Amino acid sequence: MKVIVIHAAKDLRIETRPLKDLKTGQVRVQVEAGGICGSDLHYYQHGGFGQIRVREPMILGHEISGRITETCGDAGDLKIGDVVAVSPSRPCGNCLYCDENKFSHCLNMRFYGSAMPIPHIQGAFRENLVADASQCHLISPEIRAEFGAFAEPLSVVLHGVKRAGNLSGKRVLITGCGPIGALCVLAARAAGAAEIVITDVIDNVLDIATQIGADKTINVGDNKGWTAQYSANKGYFDIMFEASGQQSALTAGLEVLRPRSVLVQLGLGGDVVISQNTVVAKEIDIRGAFRFHEEFADAVAMINAGTLNLAPLLTARVPIDQAVDAFELAGDRHRAMKVQIDFRNNLGKVKQ
Fold first, then answer.
1. Which of 171, 176, 293, 187 is nearest to 236 (CA)?
2. 3-class DSSP state for residue 8?
């Protein structure tokens, strides 16, 4: 089978690997769609992020869907021919944090396409994937496989929403309109947010946010003084999802958040400096949100319901043999929101 392997920054190769045998309770998935995530881009563009570096060849990818072609032993309700989204989250189930049901903090996590441990955890950008049946969640026949591959980033967002608490009737600010920020628009609306404002520095991604239901978009590159309209009376927003990883977004958010509001940090970046005085004076809760686990089933259920407008987020599907082109496109925010590898080699831009 063909696989997509990162060796170092800008050194992405299409290689072949032998098919793996199945063990009891496993299924073979013929991968159909694989979304290029921000972490995949960091590995491609920079060889890693923060202290995490690629130190040996690693198959990338963790946002996938595909069709079951083989089962072994008890596969539950799954059968050959089913289209599934595959959760990349594989906690050990036995460590301190698994015992506390904090599965995203598992001490022995085997998350697809991660260079955190040595040996690296190989990813899912491969033509055939052997997975535990418990990782596979059935996609409705009415839903296209490429939309099933959105289950992973949507799970990240749903975990963030859970960390934020009740959104019903709340004013929500989202900073950063990449795929995660855009999915925050959909998730916040589904959770009952009364008003959703999203910021970025690129107009075309903000146009997509408008298409999927944001009440207002702000290009903060063009509108440097945008916070003035929201900072009166100690602030305006009840909840903030920070999805850019930028110091400037965090600083602005603290200015426009109301007292006793909640800031959920989703975006990854470098070290930042915040105003402790503002956090204390406004009693702002700052909460991190890292990965997900049980939210994957919720994400698939939302996708299967058919109520999420995902089509505007999917820019293009690119065949595996053109993976480098796909990564270059995905890294250009002026041209792309979400780019997927099409393991079926169906060429062309997604119709919207």
1. 171
2. strand
Structure pTM?
Answer: 0.94
Exposed, middle or buried, 154 (CB in 10 Å: 0-12/13-18/19+)? buried
Rounded to 5°, angle at Cα 332 from 329 and 334 = 120
Q: Write the DSSP string, 126-141.
A: BSEEEEEGGGEEEPPT
Reported as a single tens digit per residue, the pLDDT across 174-213 is 999 999 999 999 999 999 999 999 999 999 999 999 999 9
User: How far apart are the C-alpha atoms of 81 and 62, rounded to whole Å?
Assistant: 21
CB-based burial label for 192 (10 Å; 0-12, 13-18, 19+) = exposed
Kindly state the tokens that stand for 119. Answer: 């040996």
Residue 98: helix, strand or coil by DSSP?
helix
Q: Which of 190, 191, 162, 118 is nearest to 290 (CA)?
A: 162
CA–CA separation, 90 vs 297, rounded Å? Answer: 14
Residue ranges and CATH numbers for the domains of the chain are 2-150+310-342 (3.90.180.10), 155-288 (3.40.50.720)
